[in-house]
Specification:
The structure holds 3 protein chains of 3 kinds.
Chain A: H1 3-8, H2 11-17, H3 28-34, H4 38-62, H5 71-93, H6 95-101, H7 103-106, H8 112-120, H9 127-157, E1 159-163, E2 170-175, H10 189-242
Helix pairs in contact in A: 4-5, 4-8, 4-9, 5-6, 5-8
Chain B: H1 2-26, H2 49-55
Chain C: H1 3-13, H2 24-29, H3 34-66, H4 72-94, H5 96-101, H6 106-109, H7 113-124, H8 129-157, H9 169-184
Helix pairs in contact in C: 1-8, 3-4, 3-7, 3-8, 4-7, 7-8
Classes of the chains: A mainly alpha, B mainly alpha, C mainly alpha.
């Protein structure tokens, strides 16, 4: 994950390449568990974006002051405090969503994405860069959640539904698969594992084919350089001969 | 008052953590275990402490 | 609740990996070899047992009397981190052979979500101390059981001809999906 490569890519390919969930296998627990409906996915995604962005900002500010030996407990305190705040806010404003997401809101503390970004990025970059990184990582996590939950909700219940988490008012509801033809296994654990496997394999396939293309391009370049060198050597030899 | 207790408890726990982290770091690894590494390849955190040891 | 029922349901029916999806990182990371799966499993059982009992005591004897229940997340995660460091240091000093087999997995455990999950679950379910002890043994035992089964399957899988894109973790998830079907049959047990 070198940064020079990161900058060359566009927004969407960065989402695929640096996708924390399907590419790096971080934060899998919550991805598998809460993606049964679109509502859960959006709620969890926003909670993670909030925690990740603010923890990145705070950690980039306090990193120079923290002794190296104890940086992990200090980061953990920062993250746990933020998660407690998010949990309290959700309990107050979106109680139903909070009770469905349950312990997974608390388990954001041990979500590897957050501590991973703190250690890998935020502790060595300035505030603005860290905030941008937190936002990007949070967004790509949310996109992964959305992809999983769309597949699982549509195939599993046949209905695409979104409701307002504050009032539980249904915003829109669209039946895509006639009732009786849904595949309920997608709402179970098995469906979660299968959906994840297919999406992860898809990301791996895109990466593989791009790597192959890059390798082929590099090889062609090297071949061309070699051929040019050979031609130059040959012409030099000829010139020598003539002399 | 309650808030003060809360801050005190958190600070105490953080202090215990700091002490244990430093003490653990200063405890030498037993003989014959210096080059042991857990073969973990679960997540993609390329610069996690364990991964770094592995690459060395 | 009957203790045996509690044990069986935490071990098999509500299996921490296949039904709650908790502890997926070590499940994927340390399951390529059977020997490392055993080491990881035993280390997780020990840490979860110790950390959950300590968290239970901290919650009911310190946080509740002071009315600071909302601090449980911060306190528990710090307690877990401290406990893991303490165990690692203790094992390093006193038993090199134990360090060789279990100790090297300890740094992986602080951020294992199963530890925090069990500590929080004991509180949310309102378990008393005996139930906490049973639950904190049964949950990691279920984790180790699934980890061992999975490691034996993955050792076979290493020699299978898997399409390029599915190599490594994606095919492991397919295996987990099939195991989840098998484990869902335990639902009628209790």
């Amino acid at each position: 994950m070198s940064e020079s490569n990161e900058k060359k890519r566009g927004f969407w390919s960065e989402m695929i390449y640096n996708n924390p969930v399907f590419g790096l296998y971080l934060g899998i627990c919550s991805t598998l568990a809460i993606t049964t409906t679109l509502n859960n996915a959006i709620g969890m995604g926003i909670a993670v974006i909030f925690v990740l962005t603010i923890s990145n900002i705070v950690i980039s500010l306090i990193a120079p002051l923290t002794p190296d030996e104890i940086h992990i407990p200090v980061y953990i305190v920062v993250i746990a405090t933020l998660v407690t705040v998010v949990g309290m806010l959700m309990q107050a404003f979106t109680p139903e969503l909070y009770s469905t997401l349950g312990t997974f809101i608390d388990l954001i503390v041990v979500n590897c994405i957050i501590l991973g970004r703190a250690e890998a990025y935020a502790c060595s970059h300035n505030v603005a860069e860290s905030a941008r990184d937190g936002l990007m990582m949070g967004l790509s996590y949310t996109f992964s959640l959305l992809a999983m939950s769309l597949i699982r909700q549509i195939l599993g219940s046949g209905v695409l539904e979104l409701s307002n988490p504050m009032t539980n008012q249904v915003l829109f509801s669209l039946r895509l698969i006639p009732s009786g033809f849904e595949i309920p296994v997608f709402t179970t654990q098995t469906g979660a594992f299968l959906t994840f496997a297919v999406l992860a394999a898809g990301v791996a396939a895109i990466k593989n084919s791009d790597e192959k293309k890059a390798a082929a391009a590099a090889k062609a370049k090297a071949d061309a350089a070699k051929a040019a060198a050979k031609a130059a050597a040959a012409s030099a030899a000829k010139a020598k001969e003539a002399a | 008052m309650r808030v003060l207790f809360g801050i005190l408890i958190a600070a105490a726990l953080l202090g215990v953590n700091a002490w244990l982290y430093i003490a653990n770091k200063n405890t030498p690894v037993p003989e014959g275990c210096e080059n042991l590494k857990p073969d973990c390849s679960g997540c993609g955190i390329t610069d996690c402490a364990i991964r770094k040891k592995e690459e060395e | 609740m009957n203790l045996l029922t509690l044990f069986l349901s935490a071990l098999l029916i509500n299996n921490v990996i296949l039904s709650k999806f908790i502890g997926m990182c070590p499940f994927l990371g340390v399951s390529t070899k059977l020997s490392s799966a055993i080491g990881m499993g035993l280390a997780v059982i020990f840490v979860i047992f110790g950390a959950s009992c300590l968290s239970w005591a901290l919650y009911y004897y310190v946080l509740v009397p002071l009315g600071l229940e909302y601090m449980k997340l911060i306190c528990f995660i710090l307690l877990i981190a401290a406990f893991v460091q303490f165990v690692e240091m203790f094992v390093k000093k006193n038993s090199p052979s134990l360090y060789k087999s279990l100790g090297i997995y300890l740094p992986l455990i602080t951020t294992n979500c199963a530890v925090l999950y069990v500590a929080l679950d004991n509180i949310t379910q309102g378990y008393n101390f005996i139930e906490t002890v049973v639950n904190s043994i049964a949950v990691p035992a279920g984790f180790m059981l699934v980890l061992l089964i999975f490691a034996t399957i993955r050792e076979r899988l290493a020699s299978a001809d898997v399409p390029d894109a599915w190599k490594g973790n994606p095919i492991a998830f397919v295996v987990a999906a099939i195991m989840a079907i098998a484990f869902s049959a335990f639902a009628g047990l209790v």
